[in-house]
Design brief:
The complex is a heterodimer of chains A (about 900) and B (about 70). Chain A has 46 helices and ten strands. In chain A, a hairpin with a 6-residue loop joins strand 9 and strand 10. Chain A has about 900 residues and is mostly helical. Chain B has about 70 residues and is α+β, with helices and mostly antiparallel strands. Chain B has a four-stranded antiparallel beta sheet with strand order 2-3-1-4, covered by helices on one side. Chain B is globular, with a radius of gyration of 12 Å. The two termini of chain B are about 25 Å apart. Classes of the chains: A mainly alpha (about 900), B alpha+beta (about 70). The interface between A and B is medium-sized, with 24 and 18 residues.
């Protein structure tokens, strides 16, 4: 085996914890620290050439480095990366201790991969958000990485810390679908359950195990020498035998022996004893440190990460940062986490041993230290850490209060799974805390069922007398917010409006102790309130709240709220102003969502649905199909039945407009079936029912139409306003009773029925025209048609003429007398079976060649270029050339965009992905 | 839950003689050291507690030699 001492690295000896900031792996030569107070060697890394070659040979597969703590896994991988000059092709992810948050894990994977492959080249950005669909994210990632043209290495270090079953299942999917140019290296303390046996059988798994990692006698000598702990050969052999080549043991020995006056005596004593290696050597190492260093190491061992200021608080002295720097330089199991070297972390094994030593020597201090750490973290805005330490100090009320006060921001940050894990750490005796109940309720909004949410709200209310006076206002706010969120999703509006309105009233010059709503909570409350108002037709108030929320969301940088405000303002545009405006606003919302990687998440369902609805109204049925398909895939009806109803309604209208009446009826009935999930009769249910009546009439099922209409309650018919009368009139007309139709429409046309938009009169006018025509009053019919065209013209509305086709009245309408000839022609074109197009979507720049079309069919798969080549018997470079041409002709830059675009253009079948 | 589960007694044998610091990690277990090994014995609530204990052994870099459930 070839060995050489490589350059000294500015890194930890045993293990390094990568973070986005500490990814620089260039072999920086560091001179030995000038600090006198830390005894120990400077840092050294042994080049383990045989292992490097083994890992490099695993280029085309998965590499598993599985060995107990302290085996030198991390250092091995770092030095391999360095040696193979892969630093700028590596995505390094260190799993946080006890990680239960799948989103946080995948975000760091994506972040690191983006850095490794060049930010926008292949992997799209993803901004954290409350609803996280890891399955979809992994699918997208696998597909994106299929376009890699150069090898990339994904290292997942400390994989054993990943305790999220979803994240592990998703990682297994990524491994199974791993594109050939992605090498995955997993470092872990024990073998993960990731279906690796399949890879092993297929010869695609390279393994580095405990025995491979043990230092040989020569390596041990090399390490000790490089660390300044020169020993005679016999002592080296003793030490090697005693540690059995265990790397952490050897490194601790090096630390204890460097500069020691009698190293041989220490080795002899150690070798003769029966104590465990780590503990014996830790004692030696600690003993050699000055008192202040020992104190700092012990007292900060309760932290996951430490910085100078926090350490000062825990040791009750200043100067900690200097000591931490010196420890890192002395290679004493301390590593900095950021480029500025302000945050540090101890090697896990070392930290665990220190913590035990602290518990033994200062048992009473542990709780106080956690207490102090929690306060420090809270003061500095690290809520999650503050909660963890409060829990460790068993200060349950304090921990609950922290969570209750910050849960909105944490959720918006996409840390819902972390909150969920923190909630699980409360013991049963902390459970009746009403403040904690509000957090449980909110937790279930995204992960559980709406019934659970309601149950926790009820518990919080029942125990509310336990809330101390000084916390009363915060409790009321937390409870009000979560009730509002529930009501918004269930559509059960009446009860909470007034109560919540008082919560979102702008904070005036109240003192800060009179806690005002945080900006995050306020923006979210305004949005939820607006939605509730919008569905209750309190449109003015709704728009006011949306606009306020939008402005606030932009100011505080919450795109998650911004997208939703824009989507709901688009609904309002459509209801009261113009679909052209609605479409513009919806497109803006979608663009913002896509820029954050949320293009297929539930929050873009509203703007996607509004794109579809606008296209339906304006006669662009093919485009409506595209947007509606996306809306349906993005939607999660079980957690937002009101939105589900909306999307089904649009589906029914679109099918009706395209003449597929029976399918339209199915879709409208599906909309109605969501009603029981809503707390009350929703306005949209009435709209779905009235659409159903008209569709039945068009299908010639007059009897069924009449029955459906008769089933409706008086109040629903009242609620339905113009549309209820239009539905009734269309039944009368189908019955051949023109006079009854005219009578039914009279209150509409004389203006005594309230409407949101004048365009709502269009179908009434069309029915009236037909009735008048049948009653032999052609000039009244002509006037109705002209009036309908006049109302429809400004917004280019076509759908009402398709839904309520006025026989041959449009063809007969005199061209020389109408002021709306162009619109009339568009309507007649659509009625004749064509669909309008918007000019917004660029046409294909140039038709794809046959060969390009063949390659295009493979783009939705994850096959990389070489495999597509094999399938098509083409060379890789030919495939790449075709791909370049395809991208250029489609006007896109990435494979995923090409697929999306090709689907829009009908060059590929629509996606069957998800639901 | 259906009442308190009956706790079970286990013996865990690890390599090396554990000193007081390391024993801090295993409260409630009775240590016994002989011939370079330590046996930790005691009652554990359930399998989850056992796995937690084994994770602790792993985290401290101890070599696990044997796990035994004692018959009551």
């Amino acid at each position: 085996m070839m060995r050489s001492t490589t350059a000294l690295h500015h890194e930890d000896a045993l293990s390094s914890y990568g973070s986005p900031d500490s990814r620089s792996l260039d072999g920086v030569l560091v001179t030995r620290s000038g600090t006198q107070e830390i005894a120990g060697p400077a840092h050294s890394v042994i080049a383990r050439r045989a292992l490097f070659e083994l890992i490099s040979a695993g280029e085309a597969g998965v590499t598993l480095v599985s060995a107990p703590p302290g085996s030198g896994k991390t250092v091995l991988l770092r030095s391999w990366i360095d040696d193979a000059e892969l630093a700028d092709r590596v995505a390094w992810v260190s799993v946080e201790r006890g990680e239960r948050d799948a989103q946080r894990f995948w975000l760091s994977v994506i972040e690191e991969l983006r850095a490794a492959v060049g930010a926008d080249a292949f992997v799209e950005r993803l901004t954290p958000m409350p609803e996280f669909d890891g399955g979809a994210v992994v699918e997208r990632l696998a597909s994106e990485l299929g376009s890699l043209d150069e090898r990339v290495v994904l290292v997942v270090d400390d994989l054993h810390e990943l305790s999220s079953p979803e994240a592990l299942a998703q990682l297994e999917v990524l491994l199974a679908r791993r594109p050939p140019l992605l090498q995955v290296v997993l470092a872990t303390r024990h073998d993960p359950q990731l279906g690796l046996h399949r890879l092993r059988v297929a010869g695609r798994l390279t393994e580095v195990r405990e025995a491979d990692l043990r230092f040989s006698l020569d390596e041990s000598r090399e390490l000790l020498t490089a660390s300044g702990a020169a020993l005679p050969g016999a002592s080296v052999a003793l030490l090697h035998a005693r540690t059995e080549g265990w790397v952490a043991g050897l490194r601790m020995a090096a630390l204890a022996l460097a500069g020691h006056p009698e190293p041989e005596r220490v080795v002899a004593e150690f070798s003769g004893g029966e104590r465990t290696v780590a503990e014996y050597l830790l004692a030696e190492v600690l003993e050699r440190q000055p008192g202040e260093v020992r104190r700092l190491l012990l007292r900060t061992s309760i932290l996951e990460r430490v910085n100078g200021a926090l350490a000062d608080v825990l040791v009750g002295a200043s100067g900690s940062e200097r000591i931490l720097h010196a420890l890192e330089e002395a290679n004493a199991f301390v590593v900095s986490l950021d480029a500025a070297r302000s945050w540090f972390r101890y090697h896990h094994l070392f930290a665990d041993l220190l913590r035990l030593e602290l518990r033994r020597t200062e048992p009473d201090a542990v709780g106080q230290l956690h207490h102090a750490a929690a306060r420090w973290y809270e003061e500095h805005g690290y809520v999650v850490e503050a909660v963890r330490h409060a829990q460790a100090a068993q200060e349950w009320r304090y921990a609950a209060r922290l969570l209750a006060d910050h849960r909105v921001s944490l959720t918006l940050n996409g840390e819902g799974a972390t909150v969920h894990a923190l909630l699980a750490a409360f013991p049963a005796e902390a459970a009746p805390d009403p403040e904690l109940m509000t957090v449980y309720a909110a937790d279930r909004l995204n992960s559980g069922s709406l019934d659970d949410v309601a149950a926790y709200i009820a518990l919080a209310e029942r125990h509310s007398s336990a809330v101390p006076d000084e916390r009363r206002r915060e409790f009321d706010i937390a409870l009000g917010l979560v009730r509002l969120a529930l009501v918004r999703r269930r559509g059960d509006f009446g009860s909470v409006l007034a109560e919540v309105q008082s919560l979102v009233a702008p904070a005036d010059a109240e003192t800060t102790s009179e806690v005002a709503l945080s900006n995050d909570a306020r923006a979210l409350a305004l949005l939820d309130l607006g939605i509730v108002e919008q569905w209750s037709l309190r449109t003015e108030e709704a728009v006011g709240h949306f606009e306020e929320a939008l402005e606030l969301a932009r100011r505080i940088g919450r795109p998650y709220i911004e997208v939703q405000c824009l989507g709901h303002l688009a609904i309002d545009d459509g209801q009261r102003r113009s679909f052209t405006q609605a479409r513009k606003r919806a497109a803006e919302a979608i663009a913002i969502g896509e820029a954050h990687g949320w293009g297929s998440e539930p929050i873009v369902a509203v703007p996607l649905a509004m794109m579809a609805l606008s296209d339906v109204w304006q006669g662009r049925f093919e485009e409506a199909e595209h947007w509606l398909g996306r809306a349906e895939r993005a939607l999660r009806s079980e957690l937002d039945p009101a939105m589900g109803l909306f999307v089904h309604l649009i589906r029914g209208r679109l099918l009706g407009a395209r003449g597929r009446l029976e399918q339209a009826i199915d879709a409208l009935r599906a909309a109605e079936r969501l009603q029981p999930k809503l707390g009350m009769e929703h306005g949209l249910t009435v709209a779905a029912r009235l659409s159903l009546v008209q569709t039945l009439v068009r299908l010639g099922e007059t009897e069924a139409a009449r029955a459906t209409l008769a089933e409706m309650s008086e109040s629903d018919r009242e609620w339905g306003g113009v549309f209820a009368r239009v539905a009734a009139a269309s039944v009368h007309l189908a019955d051949g009773d023109a006079q009854a139709a005219v009578d039914a429409l009279a209150p509409v046309l004389d203006g005594s029925v309230l409407v949101l938009r004048e365009t709502s009169f269009v179908p009434a006018l069309l029915l009236d025209a037909m009735a008048r025509d049948q009653l032999d009053d052609p000039s009244a019919a002509e006037a109705d048609i002209e009036h309908a065209l006049e109302l429809a013209e400004p917004d280019g509305l076509i759908w009402p003429f398709v839904m309520t086709p006025p026989g041959d009245l449009l063809e007969r309408h005199p061209r020389h007398r109408t002021a709306h000839a162009a619109l009339l022609q568009d309507i007649l074109d659509v009625l004749a079976g064509s669909s309008l197009r918007t000019t917004e979507l660029p046409e294909l720049r140039e038709d794809l060649s046959k060969a390009e079309l063949r390659v295009l069919r493979y783009l939705p798969s994850n096959l990389p270029a070489p495999e597509i080549g094999r399938e098509l018997f083409l060379s890789v470079s030919t495939v790449r050339t075709h791909m370049r041409h395809i991208y250029a002709k489609l006007g896109v830059h990435r494979r995923t965009e090409a697929v999306e675009r090709a689907r829009e253009l009908g060059l590929l079948a629509p996606s069957s992905r998800r639901r | 839950m259906d009442g308190p589960a009956k706790s079970l007694r286990y013996e865990i044998r690890v390599r090396g003689v554990l000193n007081e610091t390391l024993l801090e990690a295993f409260p409630g277990l009775r240590p016994e050291a002989h011939s370079g090994e330590t046996v930790l014995a005691g009652a554990l609530a359930d399998q989850a507690a056992l796995h937690g204990l084994l994770a602790q052994v792993e985290a401290l870099g101890l070599e696990l030699l044997e796990v035994r459930r004692l018959s009551a």
